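thought: fold this chain, then report.
action: predict
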Amino acid sequence: MELFQYPYMQRALIAALVIGLAAPALGIYLVQRRLALIGDGIGHVALTGVGAGLLLNRSPVLVAVIVATLGAIAIELVRSRGRTSGDLALALLFYGGIAGGVMLVGLSHSPSANLNAYLFGSLTTISPTDLTTIVVLGVVILVAMLVLRPALFAVSHDEEYARVSGLPVRTLNMLIAITTAVTVTIAMRAVGVLLISALMVVPVASAQQVTRGFRSTMTAAMALGLFAAGSGVWVAANADTAPGASVVLMAIASFLVIALAAAGWRVLRRRRVPAAAPAAPEPHEVLIG
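observation:
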């Protein structure tokens, strides 16, 4: 615990906890919409923003937010049209994003152009400015996901029903896409663009093993995300491992423990329930002819 006396470790812990709360709060809507891996695609696009920020000598995180938001809007437009060419367009956007990011980072010749810090995260190098950006945007995402929960759930569960109910479906879809882009970009320095999807999805999958209602699943997922973030930073500080990878591995370990415990509980419940006794046969009527 002595390491947490240093300011850089305190910033790392705060950033991880904020992202650990915000990512599952958003991820539950992505899982409901069967878009669990969209964070990976937006992360590829965000790398172009990182490269552009380094090349223009601007904040890579803020430029990545703008570029990823534009990419998320494009993804949502392609998805909403539902054309067969949509998958091809998304693939071009994703692969073009990561290729453009690598090229722009190379052209920037910046002494701080460490691509691994954005691919896999670098919690211990988060500056006070980065921390402020992460906290402010993370709180905005968290508040939006909680306040708009009924409307977002309706859109994620059944768009046609939500449209008939008078909800602004297109606006809400755009909100989910934009908040996904913002979440991915603020989490780049914490867990990396290649690992952020895990923090969005794995706590939700873990919570679904033991909960039934949407609200209880969301609450449990946020609690598990908070645990994974805090314990992951602690493991990284004591074992000298990569913080982003440690956070994700703690989330996956939690999923395995919960899944095994839930499976064992179901087996015990089946054994405790006594087999129903066979019903007595009804007496046949005797017909006297």
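thought: worth noting. The radius of gyration is 23 Å.
final: tokens above.
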